Amino acid sequence: MARRAGPEQKAQKADDARRYRERHLDRVREAQRRWREAHPGWWRKYAGTERERRQRAEWHATHREERQARRRERYAANPAKFIEAARRYQVKVVAATVERVDYAAIIVRDRGLCGICGDAVPPEEMSFDHIVPVSRGGDHSMANVQLAHLVCNKRKGNRRPADLEAIVRILGGRSL
């Protein structure tokens, strides 16, 4: 009987595939283009008939408020899930590495201290900061996320640690 791959093997395989795609982007895109040419219209079996597509679009248009209310309810039930999904999407847009981030583990790792100012962070002021901002090429990973006060995080903006050190030197030792 064949053994099934465990989570570690699956994660390793996915990581290997991601690295291959990164290194051979042109080759992958060319293979995808050739496949699409060889299989025209493959998506039709997933999209349904033209009539079904029209009905779906019409339903979405007429039930907009209902859909938004359901989304708000799901968000209220689990805001961390939506925030994580938004961060993953943002990172994918800039083509950075995306990994699941365990925020509870970050709080324990950082011992409840702000990574920017070093003071204790009460739960109501808690936020998470990308050390190297995603917009500056940083990854969304455990190693690049730190606990921070919301105020400190907003003041930091999308500056890198080196930028912050230069600003502190200019301000004569005073923090932002």
Describe this structure in words.
With 176 residues, the protein is mainly alpha-helical. It has a domain at 79-176: Orthogonal Bundle (DNA Binding (I), subunit A). Helix content is 57%, strand content 6%. It has 9 helices and 2 strands, in the order H-H-H-H-H-H-H-E-E-H-H. It has helices spanning 7-23, 25-38, 44-47, 50-62, 64-77, 79-93, 103-109, 150-156, 161-170; strands at 126-130, 145-149. The protein has a two-stranded antiparallel sheet with strand order 1-2. The N and C termini lie far apart (62 Å). The mean pLDDT is 83.
Describe how the helices and strands are arranged.
Blueprint: H1 7-23, H2 25-38, H3 44-47, H4 50-62, H5 64-77, H6 79-93, H7 103-109, E1 126-130, E2 145-149, H8 150-156, H9 161-170
Antiparallel strand pairs: 1-2
